[in-house]
Structures are given as structure tokens and as C-alpha cells.
Specification:
10 helices; globular; 146 residues; 0% strand; mainly alpha
């Protein structure tokens, strides 16, 4: 039930609630459970709707604070699938947010150690994720876009 209060509390400026939640949520749930509840509650966010835009901004802020407050949750390889779900949610609902770039970088770091070769493939991995999520087999690849 506390998860349902995250967005309203944050919108009211109650940062204590969020910090307290992030400090204690593991006592009764997992990162995946928290995100599942948020995704279900905020699954139908409309573009160009002032109220929904406020919710999107609030969710971006909550996720960013969570990443800063509890980095271990995000750098744990066992949470990679959950992070992919978060990234797809952000792609669909907040595609121009800084959070999307931050999640993309984080997921790339979790996939493999950084080398010169993997740095050159960073743009390709985002396209791969997009194609996989959208189920596109023959989507335009980065090489074709240049």
C-alpha cells in the first residue's frame, strides 16, 4: 500500500516519505514488486495531458532519486530483467527523459565490461532493445541510418 502513495507524497513535496520508503521497502517486497505496482497504477499515461505529464515528471524524479539513494538495487545483475522493464516503460512514457539515457548506460554496463569494441556498439544495443521490445525483426539498424 505504501507504493501507491509514492507519487502523491512526492508531488506534495514529502521527500521524507520517499527516503523512508526506499530505506525500508526491502523488508516487505522487492524492486520488481514495487515497479510492477507502479507500472500497473500508471500504465495509461497520455501524451499532452497536463495531469499525466506531472505524473511522468514525478515518476522520473522518483526513479532518479532511487538510483542515487540505492545504487546497489540498480547495479545488481539479478535485477537486469527488472531494469529492462523499467527502461521499456520509460521509453514508452518518457522517451525524451534523462532517465532513459541513464538506464541505457546502466544496462550496457551490466551486460559486459567496457572495451573499445563495446563502446562502439553502445548505439546498437539501444536499437536492439527497442526492436526486441517492439517485436521488429527488420527494423532499421544504426548502420543504415548513417
Amino acid at each position: 500500500m505504501l507504493v501507491m502513495n509514492l507519487v502523491p507524497a512526492h508531488q506534495k513535496g514529502d521527500l521524507f516519505f520517499l527516503r523512508n520508503f526506499l530505506h525500508n521497502y526491502r523488508l516487505c517486497g522487492t524492486m520488481e514488486q514495487v515497479l510492477t505496482i507502479l507500472f500497473r497504477k500508471y500504465k495509461s499515461l497520455r501524451p499532452n495531458c497536463e495531469e499525466d505529464e506531472k505524473v511522468k515528471d514525478t515518476l522520473c524524479s522518483i526513479f532518479t532519486i532511487w538510483m542515487d539513494f540505492s545504487p546497489d538495487d540498480f547495479y545488481d545483475r539479478k535485477n537486469r530483467d527488472v531494469l529492462n522493464e523499467l527502461m521499456f516503460y520509460v521509453m514508452l512514457n518518457m522517451p525524451s527523459s534523462d532517465l532513459l539515457l541513464r538506464l541505457h548506460i546502466l544496462l550496457d554496463q551490466l551486460e559486459e565490461p567496457v572495451t573499445c569494441q563495446t563502446k562502439s556498439k553502445a548505439g546498437e544495443s539501444l536499437c536492439r532493445r527497442l526492436r526486441a521490445y517492439l517485436g521488429l525483426q527488420n527494423a532499421v539498424t544504426p548502420e543504415l541510418m548513417t
